Amino acid sequence: MDPRVLTWVICLLLRWTAAQKSLEVLNCCEGDVLFLVDSSGSVSSYEHARMLAFLSELLLPFSLGQEQVRVGLLQVGTKPRLEFGFDTFKRQSGLQGALKSIRPLRGDTNTVEALKMAKDVLRKRAGRGGGSGLPRVLVWMTDGVKPGDVVGPMAELREEGVAVLVVSTGHGNYQVLRQVVSPPTDSHLHFVDIDDMSIITDELRDALIEILRAERIQVRDISTDSATLQWRPVLSGLSGYYEIRVGQVPSGGGSGGGPGTSPSIGGSQYQRVTQPAGSNSVRLRDLKPETTYVATLTSKSNEQDFNSLSVTFTTKPEVLSPAVVTVSESGQTSVRVSWGPLQPDTVTSYLIEYSALPGGKLQTVRVDPRQNSTLLRGLQADTTYLVTVSARHASGKEKAMSVKMCTQEVTPALADLQLTTVGSDSVQVDWKASAQGLRGYWLTWEGQQSSVPGRHSSLYLPPDSRSTRLTHLPPSSRVCVSPIYQSARGDGLCCTAQFPSGEPSRLMARINECGLRLSIIVILSYRFLIRQHVSLYLLL
């Protein structure tokens, strides 16, 4: 091959690679970058021109303006000067022309005064509503000669959140320059000969992108079949439109191209949606559940170039009812079963199946799709059941979920309680109760005239007990007996022991206040005594 042709091909490839690299940076970032360029007497005109040419190449790929990258340049001389501020240029053409027309200041290297001006410029920008919270970067380009007392001012900038990067075309004052840069030093501090500055272009640009990178496109409100794509409205104020392509990410890869396919999604089928220049979101619909998609946004405008932005997201898995089954209102013969989520538009019916464990008879209940609970009745007490809720969906799919539920045991109340006083401070306690399921008895007693009011004493007795004797009771002691079962305590009875003041008779020992039932017995006993007294009087 002719060497001249080979050279021409290589040049074309290099230009194409550079163009592709530039396109990758477009629309990537948002923030403010202020360049502090040394143009004092220690910097020759040639070196000054090389610095500006380096800046031209460095900044060329960035999109400029509001919600993009804003660039300012401040020259260092005897009297530092702000050549242009952050709001000056919104197009690359204006910025590139300005970089070619800047002339050096000459004089002393008054970096300290320049840093004061830089602080004012960066602070004003941070104080505005549009720049608040955005990244701020100071790039100091120096020959390294007599930098001045810059460590303190640079430290103040870093404390205020400004990232400091340094490019030195000399090889002196390494320790000073190393102190002023923000970490990491290896990517934020560069020493390079003036004629070799192009070799650090990509590295310095990558460092800026890392600081300024903005989340330009994102996916929100993802469901099983839809998602919302949002982006920064970069076409606001411009003519044009947004093109959105959404397609599944192929699991095994594939070649792009062809009608109805997109190379960015590996050749799979895609949706194409267009939105006007003033919009910043679109709802993507008709997606498949639990599927990974890639959405590509391309901003189309004849006034400015923008690179395409892509984002990958995965739809949520389809939630088929029932996804959860719970039990509540558990009683001795009934339990409420609930399920969710309620999906009346997709469910045709629910079937509830339940049986006692182990080996009980299977019973079924069919429920309307607009209902998400039912009360199962006629159950056996103190029994474990397996209940299954099945949903038939309109799509033909079926889903079932099972849980165990338990009915409460029967806890019969105490049948009878009697107190018989024995002596002046003891009482015989007798009771009757159902023996089925008993785990024991709980006795408590309290002296109403005790020196410690409200103080209770308690005693546990085994299930075969039917009586006990309590001694050393204070007057008017209230005695309660409750049956204890496996899951709960049954209803008990209480009586108050009344001790006679004199020699106790057998009749008085039986007269105690044992609830309403014993009170009636006492009244009837007294009526019997009165009748006997009247009859004896009449006979006399």
UniProtKB/TrEMBL annotation:
Alphabetically ordered keywords of this record: Basement membrane, Disulfide bond, Extracellular matrix, Glycoprotein, Phosphoprotein, Repeat, Secreted, Signal
SUPFAM superfamilies, A to Z: Fibronectin type III (SSF49265), vWA-like (SSF53300)
Keyword set includes ATP-binding: no
UniProt function note: Promotes matrix assembly. Involved in the organization of skeletal muscles and in the formation of neuromuscular junctions.
Localization of this protein: Secreted, Extracellular space, Extracellular matrix, Basement membrane
Domain Fibronectin type-III residue range list: 213-318, 321-413
Region Disordered: start-end pairs: 250-280
Keyword DNA-binding (UniProt): no
Protein name: von Willebrand factor A domain-containing protein 1
Gene3D superfamilies: Immunoglobulins (2.60.40.10), von Willebrand factor, type A domain (3.40.50.410)
Gene Ontology CC: one annotated term: basement membrane
Signal peptide: 1-19
Domain spans labelled VWFA: 32-208
GO biological process, one term: neural crest cell development
Biased composition (Polar residues): 269-280
Pfam families named in the record: fn3, VWA
InterPro entries listed in its UniProt record: ECM_Assembly_Org (IPR050525), FN3_dom (IPR003961), FN3_sf (IPR036116), Ig-like_fold (IPR013783), VWF_A (IPR002035), vWFA_dom_sf (IPR036465)
Main location as per UniProt: secreted
Comp. bias (Gly residues): 250-260
SMART domains named among the record's database cross-references: FN3 (SM00060), VWA (SM00327)
